[in-house]
Amino acid sequence: MAADGLPKLTVSWHMTSRHVSRIGSAVDADGVPDILVGVLRGGMIPAVQLAHLLGIRTVRAIQVTRTLTDEADAAKTLQPVTANPGSLGDLSGQDVLIIDDIAGSGLTMLACKGLVQQAGAARVRTAALAVNALNWERSRSRSVSPSRELTYVGHIYRGWVTFPWERQ
Questions:
Q1: Which CATH architecture has domain 8-67+76-162?
Q2: What is the pLDDT averaged over residues 2-11?
Q3: Which of 3, 95, 132, 146 could disulfide-pair with 123, CB 3.0 to 4.6 Å?
Q4: What percent of the chain has pLDDT over 90?
Q5: pTM for this structure?
Q6: How confident is the model at residue 96 (pLDDT cuts 50, 70, 90)?
Q7: 125 SS3 class
Q8: Helix (H, G, I), strand (E, B) or coil at 47
Q9: Cis peptide preceding 60, ω within 30 of 0
Q10: 138 falls in which pLDDT band (50, 70, 90)?
Q11: How far apart are CA 141 and CA 20, in angstroms?
Q12: Contacts for 144 with CB less than 8 Å, ≥ 6 apart
């Protein structure tokens, strides 16, 4: 259980691969992007997996965070905090897919999307390996579903999600 009593779920490498494959199939059907942007830190792992799956050679990173620690149900900043937005480089005219490992409120992804648009991307799609539905519902209007704000979702969980690359 997480600190607030919500379920703590551990996603295996096998399930992670299934989520990446599900996202990859949907992305492929919509057209392979020119560039993948992984949200540091956790989003880089699915970004590299997707890059290999889809044959994309250009992978960039952006550091946008809201949590203050890596602990379950960690305290969050009011607004996403960005470090080194210049790491995106010039995205003028590019088709870009942003991926993160988890979406809680969706605010981190919205901030990333804004930065990618400011860098000149012609098309911006978003993906989350997992959505914590309980956090989403607590922080957003219930009428705003993850599938309305995220282009691709690997899986929706009801609780705190821990990935295999995280400290257990």
A1: 3-Layer(aba) Sandwich (3.40)
A2: 70
A3: 95
A4: 57
A5: 0.87
A6: very high
A7: strand
A8: helix
A9: no
A10: confident
A11: 27
A12: none
Rounded to the nearest 10 degrees, the angle between the axes of helix 44-54 and helix 13-30 is 50
Residue in this structure with the two tokens 């779920």, named with its chain if needed: 9
Among residues 123, 156, 168, 161, the alpha carbon closest in space to that of 27 is found at 123
CA distance 168 to 162: 7
Q: Which two tokens stand for residue 164?
A: 């295999």
Cα gap 13→27, rounded to integer Å: 21
62 contacts 87 by C-beta, under 8 angstroms: yes
Residue in this structure with the two tokens 């600190």, named with its chain if needed: 3
Closest CA to 50 of 21, 71, 79: 21
- As given in the structure block, the two tokens for residue 73 are 């149900």
Residue type, 145: S
Token pair listed for 89: 């480089």
Q: How confident is the model at residue 107 (pLDDT cuts 50, 70, 90)?
A: confident
Return the domain boundaries, the chain: 8-67+76-162
